[in-house]
Amino acid sequence: MSLTLGVIADDYTGASDLANTLTKESVRTLQTIGVPDAALALPDADAVVVSLKSRSVPAEEAVKMSLAACAWLKARGASHILFKVCSTFDSTDAGNIGPVTDALRLATGAAIVPVTPAFPETGRTVFMGHLFVGTVPLNESPLKDHPLNPMTDADLRRVLARQSTGRVGLVPLKDVAAGVDAIRARLEALALDGRTAAIVDAVFDADLVAIGAAAAGLPLSTGASGLGLGLARALVAGGRVLSQAGDGGAITQGIAGLAAAVAGSCSAATLEQIAVAERVMPVLRLSAERLVTHPDEEVADALAWAKGRLAAGPVLIAASDNPEQVAQVQARFGRTAAGLAVEHGTAAISQGLVAAGVRRLVIAGGETSGASVDRLGLPAFLVGPEIAPGVPLLRTAGQAGEPMVLALKSGNFGGPDFFARAFALMGAGVA
Ligand SMILES: Nc1ncnc2c1ncn2[C@@H]1O[C@H](COP(=O)(O)OP(=O)(O)OP(=O)(O)O)[C@@H](O)[C@H]1O
Ligand SMILES: O=C(O)[C@@H](O)C(=O)CO
Q1: Which of 73, 215, 357, 395 could crosslink 221 through cysteines, CB 3.0-4.6 Å?
Q2: What is the CATH T-level fold of the domain 251-425, as seen in this structure?
């Protein structure tokens, strides 16, 4: 397999978001979970998205995992590496976007790295280096209450500089609007001035097409699905990838079995989606406190609840809670310990659901998805049609046993009826 584009994604939902964008742009794309085993038989692809669970781990660990993924992708011919981060730049002052970008820059020999989390289709735009979520700056959006990495500064030059060893510059919208040559010229000037990364403004998809054209000529970029769109357009236009229309129908073919969803995202979008799901399917609200203090009992009770209902249609099991409740649990047990306990609990529930015959599984939340997919030991996914912007259907690939269809939903993505829509596309209707 000879690749053109190698993507290192810092969480699993983000990886499927990016794989979705590339697939929509007709780039033959495969999503792997971690660096694939040498023995894993993979179909041909022009782009591979390696999913890591590296967003919230200590920076040294994230760097190590990302360098291993980079080496694997480069050994298979990838001429450009995209480090896929969250469109809301989820990270802390300790990392991991800065440390990983710095390390990949050295590994790829890049002089400067264009960085933009813009994803206009989902309302993420960057202007004068400041990230907006819809109509408000990042620090006024619900991301200020994120359970693991509250985002309190919208100025990405400052945010990235606090995490990086290098100096951070800006490619302003004026240059982006002037087109690919102006972007290249600004990046070169910033590199000459000693900047090792540059936040690139982008408000419309057209901006990202120009940025993608400039970035495709460099060894490395850091960004979200908007940058993926720009890179895909540049690679297809330059004849560097085989453009191929997707075969969406094949994704759900031959998949029967039960259907369920597990949610651990506490984003405003997911909380609303759970409330809406309650009107059309059975929903169980887990106790985060009990997942910390009596995990086996809480998991067993949840599975018993689900098993009594699955035959009648999809069910949803959610740990998700509002910021006040999450803060209380965190105050009592600590942020990391509470998050990990809930992830372990939801992963055990996903495993129990699959053991009970679930073959159509929706998971909400990046860390939550990572923990569940790891527990299920799924090595790779083929990418199918889109349920909502940034959320495709996925079909398991490369694993022994019966295939499954999954959806890994980024916390903030999807409309209010997301769960019902996902099940309908998976061929499992709700009442
Ligand atoms: N009730 C709760 N109390 C405390 N922590 C919780 C609770 N419910 C979930 N969590 C934790 O909150 C974190 C949510 O992160 P996750 O990445 O799954 O969602 P997200 O950040 O909304 O999604 P994404 O990363 O895709 O944007 C997880 O670590 C999860 O275990
Ligand atoms: O970019 C995004 O917002 C998502 O793909 C994501 O990474 C959420 O975890």
Answers
A1: 215
A2: Molybdenum Cofactor Biosythetic Enzyme; Chain A (3.40.980)
